[in-house]
């Protein structure tokens, strides 16, 4: 993989001991849901956590974290403070762009905006900065690799063949950038009937785990399809904070413990 000439080295103010990207090759597989819950789960365990929502075209952190405020300006011109929610620091295009404005931007504009998340946001000292990557293997991947290269990537996939095909492509892109794969999360692994408890392997439970094993990467865990997960996302309260001992909450906490 090569960088294009207009993509110069990005100045960065990130102040994190570890930078970890969360990636999925396809959109809609739950990458942002996993990113946000991982971030909040790690903060609950006492770590200083930041979340940089690198999905400039389709930002999700604003809604999933329930904080749509504008960022406060910093003391120097062209600087802003990250926002806070549920014990983490975050920045997202969703807090900057007007909700009504479609984000039809060229690659170079995405690169510039994303670079500013690194260079103009006054991140505090962090133990871990999670990068919620946009789907696919486009410009954002190169920008993040140039700005503050992740020390590893967590891959999110559903067990469906269509998602897994692209997942393998994404894994190759990170390998080309020398970013190690920390592990796979299988999301929407199965559907459990809330009435009778019957487990429906809708997308083929275990297929993402099998691919992780084939490729020699750790498997961090599986999350079911659960209305608690989508409802909590819509409510802006990460489900990892739920006091219930439901299978989803337990599974998410087990994933956080492995990271
Ligand atoms: P991505 O970041 O991969 O585009 P999101 O995290 O935005 O995906 O999730 C897409 C939608 O699916 C959201 O509405 C989210 O609430 C929902 N969702 C994600 N994971 C689950 C799950 N395990 N069970 C139920 N709904 C889920």
UniProtKB/TrEMBL annotation:
GO molecular function: 4 iron, 4 sulfur cluster binding; ATP binding; ATP hydrolysis activity; ATP-dependent FeS chaperone activity; metal ion binding
Positions annotated to bind ATP: 25-32
Keyword Iron set for record: yes
UniProt keyword Iron-sulfur present: yes
Alphabetized UniProt keyword annotations: ATP-binding, Hydrolase, Iron, Iron-sulfur, Metal-binding, Nucleotide-binding
GO BP terms in the entry: iron-sulfur cluster assembly
Known role: Binds and transfers iron-sulfur (Fe-S) clusters to target apoproteins. Can hydrolyze ATP.
The protein's assembly and partners: Homodimer.
Family label: Belongs to the Mrp/NBP35 ATP-binding proteins family.
Protein name listed in UniProt: Iron-sulfur cluster carrier protein
Organism (species): Acanthopleuribacter pedis
């Amino acid at each position: 993989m090569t960088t294009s000439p207009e993509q110069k080295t990005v100045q960065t103010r990130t102040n994190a001991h570890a930078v970890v990207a969360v990636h999925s090759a396809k959109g809609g597989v739950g990458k942002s849901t996993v990113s946000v819950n991982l971030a909040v789960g790690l903060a609950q365990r006492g770590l200083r956590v930041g979340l940089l929502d690198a999905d400039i075209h389709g930002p999700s952190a604003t809604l999933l974290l329930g904080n749509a405020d504008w960022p406060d300006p910093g003391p120097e011109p062209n600087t802003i403070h990250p926002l806070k929610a549920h014990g983490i620091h975050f920045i997202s295009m969703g807090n900057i762009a007007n909700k009504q404005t479609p984000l039809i931007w060229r690659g170079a504009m995405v690169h510039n905006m994303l670079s500013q998340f690194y260079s103009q946001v006054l991140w505090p000292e962090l133990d871990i900065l999670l990068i919620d990557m946009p789907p696919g293997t486009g410009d954002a991947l190169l920008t993040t690799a140039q700005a503050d290269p992740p020390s590893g990537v967590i891959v999110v996939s559903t067990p469906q063949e269509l998602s897994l095909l692209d997942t393998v492509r994404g894994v190759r892109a990170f390998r080309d950038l020398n970013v190690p794969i920390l592990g796979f999360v299988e999301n929407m692994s199965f559907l459990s009937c809330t009435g009778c408890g019957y487990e429906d392997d809708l997308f083929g439970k275990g297929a993402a785990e099998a691919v992780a094993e084939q490729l020699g990467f750790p498997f961090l865990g599986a999350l079911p399809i659960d209305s608690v997960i989508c409802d909590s996302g819509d409510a802006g309260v990460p489900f990892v904070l739920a006091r219930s001992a439901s299978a989803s909450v337990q599974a998410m906490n087990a994933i956080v413990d492995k990271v």
